[in-house]
Amino acid sequence: MSNVPHLNHARKSGDEPFLEAKNLRVGYGGRPVLNDFSVRLEHNEVLCLIGHNGAGKSTLLKALFGLIPVEQGTLALEGRLVAKPTPKSMNSAGIALVPEGRGVFPGLTVAEIMRLGFWANGTPKGEQAARLDWVMDVLPMIKKFYQQRAGTLSGGQQQMVSLGRALLSQPRCLLLDEPSIGLAPKLFQDLLGPIRALQKERKMSILIVEQNVKEALKISDRVMVMKSGELIKEGTPDEFADNTQLMELY
Ligand SMILES: Nc1ncnc2c1ncn2[C@@H]1O[C@H](COP(=O)(O)OP(=O)(O)OP(=O)(O)O)[C@@H](O)[C@H]1O
User: Fold this and answer.
1) Are 182 and 69 part of one and the same domain?
2) What is the residue-averaged pLDDT of the chain?
3) CA–centroid distance, residue 22 to ligand 1 (Å)
4) How far does residue 246's CA lie from ligand 1's centre (Å)?
5) Quick one: which H or E segment has residue 116?
6) How far, in Å, is the centroid of ligand 1 from the Cα of 69?
7) In what order do the strands lie in the sheet with 80-81?
8) Which atom of ligand 1 is nearest to the CA of 226?
9) Residue nearest to atom 4 of ligand 1 (CA)
10) What confidence score (pLDDT) does residue 151 get?
11) Where is the ABC transporter domain (predicted)?
């Protein structure tokens, strides 16, 4: 396991990562949460980010998706610099964020939430039916409660809807913020299964922030640990399988 922030993967030269952030400075009201923070997400990789509450994990995901401004540093997608990331530009580039807390509107039916999703990501009308069919193939359980209001659904069902909405843009990269929150362990496993299957099939890149480390590690290729805005450890899931190792970090 490495204590330094960069794990040097054996990569072919010219083989750019899907996403690379270098020396990021990001914060709120002039106070940095991340300072000189660098991270790389490879093609066809699930990277799990763990760490204490308040370590800056959600802040990182939001910055990578353009929801909060990057004050310093660079962000590149497949080797190309992104001058000013915005949610719209990042979504067009193939990235989707599934925020913490699901973010579904309780008064809307699942069908309405999906229509809103199409509107938000600008999917042409002619493509919408095929995309919806595809999402239903990936997450078939959604069909069962498609006409129900989101507020009447269980936590796990709402999480499915949130993921389904993110998939409407057929992203190449998912940023998942604590998908296990409020879910029983079995429901979380039910959610992770389709995510990993989809990732493998489409060779997607996934950055998952998760407190349920045990389950998240099962679907991860690489693990990073954050503390107070800094990367303190990096390794493979096997290297973190030992619980005592994790306890030392927390
Ligand atoms: N909108 C905001 N305005 C001001 N400060 C914020 C805001 N959002 C987060 N912070 C602060 O930034 C720091 C990092 O928060 P962040 O949510 O990124 O941590 P986290 O690692 O995702 O934690 P958790 O596991 O609790 O979600 C915390 O000190 C938090 O209080």
Assistant:
1) yes
2) 88
3) 20
4) 22
5) helix 110-121
6) 15
7) 31-41, 19-28, 72-77, 80-81
8) 21
9) 28
10) 93
11) 19-249
